[in-house]
Amino acid sequence: MNDLVSGIDIAFWALAAIAVLSGWRVFSTDSMVRASFLLLLSFMAVAGIMLLLAAPYIGVATIFMMAVEMMVMAVFMVMFMMNPAGLNPMSMVHQQPLAIGAGVVAFIGLSAAVLTSPLPDQPVAADHRAIHALGIEMLGDSMLIFESAGVALLSAMIGSVILSSRSGRFGPADPGSRPPGLCEGGLPAGSVPDENKNHGMGHGMQHDTPNAAPQDTHGAHGAQGS
Amino acid sequence: MNAATAVGATLLLMLGGAWLVAVFDRIAAALVARRPVGSLWLGPLQSGASLLVSRTNQTEHPDALNWALAPALYLVLAFVGVALVPFSTSGALVDIPAGIVLWGAVESLTVVAVFLHGWSANALFPLLGAYRYVAVGLPIMLVSMFVLIAAALPAQSLALGAIVQSQAGLWNVVRQPLGLPLFLLLGLSLTLRGPFNYADSADLAGGTDAERSGPPRAVWQWARLSMAVSFSAMAATVFLGGPLGPAWGTAELGPLWLTLKTAVVLALLVAASHLLARMPPSRMLTLLWTVLLPLSFVGLVAAGIEAAP
Amino acid sequence: MVVSNPQATPFLGGGSMPTHAWQRFHARYYPMALLFIAFEMEMMFMYPWAVVFVQEGIKALAEMGMFLAILSVGIVYAWREGVFRWQ
Amino acid sequence: MAIAWPWLDRLAARAPVAIFVAVGRDAIERVEDLSLDARIAWVASPRHADVLLVAGRVRSEDAPALRAVHDQIPAPRKTLWWGSTPFQELVLPMVLPLADEASLPILSLHTRVSNSEPDWLPDVPPNPWRGLGPNGQGGKDMMGGVPYGRPMAMTDDDSRDGLQLDQTTVQIGPFLQTWPAGLVLELALQGDVVQHARVVHSPCGPTKGLREGVSSRLRSAARLLRLLELGSLAERCLRVAAAHDRCQPVELAALRAAVRRSGAFAALPAGLGACRLDGAPSDIRSRLLAWLGNDADPSKDATTEPKPKLSGLLTGLEWNEAWLVISSFTPQQLHGMAVPEKAPVKGDDNTTNSARSAMEHAH
Hints:
With 226 residues, chain A is mainly α. Chain A has helices spanning 7-26, 32-52, 56-80, 96-116, 130-139, 143-164. Chain A is built from six helices and no strands.
C-alpha cells in the first residue's frame, strides 16, 4: 500500500466525481424522470465508495433501496409535476437564497463532522464479518431501536394508505373534502367534488354538453361524490 | 482464475445460454401448438441476424439518452447477475459477502431499466407497458426477498458460496419447498415472460418493445434471454445446490453440474411462460399482495423453524 | 440517424393522438407504491438478522415473529381499505 | 443504423419474413391461416416488420391509417396488396387476388433486392413548430405551445379516484393484431383507464354468407388467448380451426382442457364485460367457454333484443380489461354493437381545446 496512487484511490476519486456531477445534473435537467435517475446514479456512486470502505452490506443495500425508491419517486414526480418530461425549458431550483443558505450550513456541518471525528487509521481486518456484527448489534443493544423502527414504519404504512386511497371500508373518501387554496383563504386549487359533478374545471375550461352521445353509465360520471 | 478468461467465459456462456433459451422457447411453442418444430438449431441465430440487419427506428422526440441506454442497462444487469453465481465450489467472478443483496439490487435495477425503456420512447404503448410493469415488478420483488432470506437462514450468511455449502446435506428445494416456485414467478417477471409479461405484452403491440427495431431491439431481446440465464443460474445456486454434485463426482465437475441445473430451471421457466395465462394487472396486484406475499411469510417462518438449532 | 416525420409517429394501429404521450401519468397503484417503500425499509433490517438467526436461536425467532406480525398488520389494514387494486 | 456483413445478411435471409398485416374486409381468416406458415411471422408492430400485407378491401375512411402504418415500417419496406386495391399514385404495386396463396409472393418480395418504398405521407411534423430561445428548445411557459410539434395533455376529471391528472384522447385502430378489423375507437385515457370511449368507425363486419360455426368460434378464442399471453395455445386453436375448415375431424375436448389448465378462466375477472347477449346474460368467461364448446350454434339470430353498446362496456375499464372485452365478441356479435357515434361538440373536449389554443399561442 505504499504506492503513490493505488487502484482504490483512483476508484474513490472517480466515484466521488460521478456522485458530485450527477448530483449537480439533478438540478439542471428539465425532465423529472432524468432527475430521479440521476439522483440514483449519484447514490450508486456513494454506495460504491462504501464498498471501498469495506462496508459491503451498507453499500449494496444503498443501491438496492435507492433503485426502488427513485423508481417510486419518478412515478410520483411524473404524476404531480407540470411538464414532467421537460418538453418546455424550466428551472428545477426554487427559493434560491434559502436553498443556498441551507446548502452552505449543511456543507459546513458535515465537513466539521468529518474533520473533528477520530478517523480510523488501521485497515479493517480481512476476516472481519461486518454483516454478522450488524446482526448481533440489532439483536442486542439496538433491539429497541430496531423494533420501534418497525412500529414507526407500520404507522407510515397506515398513514400512507389513509392519505392516498380514495376507496375504503366506509365508502369513498372525498365527499366533504376540499382541496387547499391557492393562497391563504383563497379558492381551492382544483375543483370541489361536490359541486358541478358533471365535468372538471381542471384548467378553467367551460363545458357544456348539449350533444354528447348518450353514455352507458358504467361509472364514467356516476362514481363522482354524491 | 485469470480475470480475462473469466470474463470471456461469461460472455460465451451468455451467448450460448441465450441461444439455449431461444431453442427451448421454440420447442415449447411447437409442443403447445401441436406442430413440428421447424428450424430448431439455426432458427434463433437467423432471427437474431434479421434483427441486426434491419434498420434502427427513432420515435418523435424521445429521451434519446435513455432510449439508447435502457437495453444496454438491462443486458449489463443480466451479466452482473451471472457474475455473482459461484461456478465452482471455489468461488464466483464477483464474490462479495452480501451476494443475495446484490442480486436484489439487480432485480430492482431491472425494474428501472424496463421503465426507462418504455418511458423514453415518448409513445403511448411503451409508456403503458412501463407503468404497468412497475406496478407488478415492485411487489414481486418483496416475495423474492423473503424467499432469499429464508435461504440465507441455514447458511448463516448472505454470500452465495455459503448458501451453496449449506446445501451439502439437503438441497433447499426440498428443505424449503415454497422457495423455488415463488422464485420462479420472479424469474418470469424479470424476463418479461408469459404470466408476468406486463411490459412487452400482446395487448400493447409489444409494449416497451413496440417502437424498437434494428440492432437496439436485438440487444433488448438478447438481454431478455440473458436475464433468463442469469436468473436460472441464481435459482440453481440457491435452491438446487449450485455446483454441488453427487458423492461420486469430483469438485472439478462443479461448473458442469451448475450448467445442468441451470438448464433444468430454464426449462421450467420456459414451460411456465408458454403454459400459463396472464391476468389483468389489477387482479395480479391483489393476488400478489394478499396471497403470494403472505405465502412467502409462511415460507420464511417454516424455514426459520426448520433452521432453528 | 434521422427518420422522416411519418415514420417517427408513434404506432397506434393507424390511429393517432394529438398530444405527446408524456403526461402527468395517472399511475393507478400509488397507495401500493407508498406501502411498498415502507415494506422495503423493514426488509433491509432482515438481511443482517438472517445471518445471526441460527446463532441467536429463540430470541431471533421471536423477533422475526414480531416483525412479520407488524408487516402483516400493515397488509391486512391496506387490504381492508381496498388498496391492492387499480385505483 | 444497421449492421452490414454479407454472412449476416445470408443468415438473416433465412429467418421467417416478418409481416405486418392491415386486415380489411373478409380477410381475417385468410391472414390467420397464412400466419400458420413457418416461413412467415405475423408481428404486432410495424416496427418489427419487413413487409406490409394489405389483406382484403380497405375502406376509404381507413386509407389514412393504412398510409400511416406503412410509413411506420422501417426501410427497406415492401407492400403486397392481397385482394385489395392499391393507391392510385403507386408505381407498379404488387397485387394478388385474395384467393391465391400469399406466402410465396411474400418470400419473393423479401428476397428481391430493391430500393425501399418511399413514404406515403408528406414529411411534415404534426404541428408547425420552431424551437424557442437561444437553445431552440421547447414551447412557451411550462405547459404551453407545441414543443417538438405536439401540445401537452391537460388535466381532466377522473371517474375512479377523482384525481384530476392528465387526460389524453387517442384514436386506436383499425390495424392492430387481435383487434376487430376496421374498428376505430376514440378513447379518453387517464393513465391506462378509459374515461370515455367512442366508436369512430365500426368494424368491417362478418364475412357475408358465413355462418358462425366451430371454426369461426375457435378463431375468436385464439384472439382472446393471444391477449392472455398464450400465443402458442392460440396457434393451436387456429390449427384446429384450419383443420376443421378442411373437413378433418377435430378434438375440442382436449383443447378445452388445455385452455382450462392454463388458468385462462381464472385469469379473466368474473363479470368482466357482463351484458345481455342473444337473450341471455353473459360475461367474458362464459363467452370463451362457449367458443370452445361443441354446440351446433348457440347464437340465435332471431332475437330482437337490442345489443349492448361497446363504448358503454369499455368506459371505466383498465386498458388490458378493455381490450379483453373487445376481443370477447365474435365479429357477428360485434356487428350491431359498435356503430359510429357522433363526436362531442367542439369545445367539450379539453384536450383538443387546449391543443388549439396552444396552436394559437405558437403563431
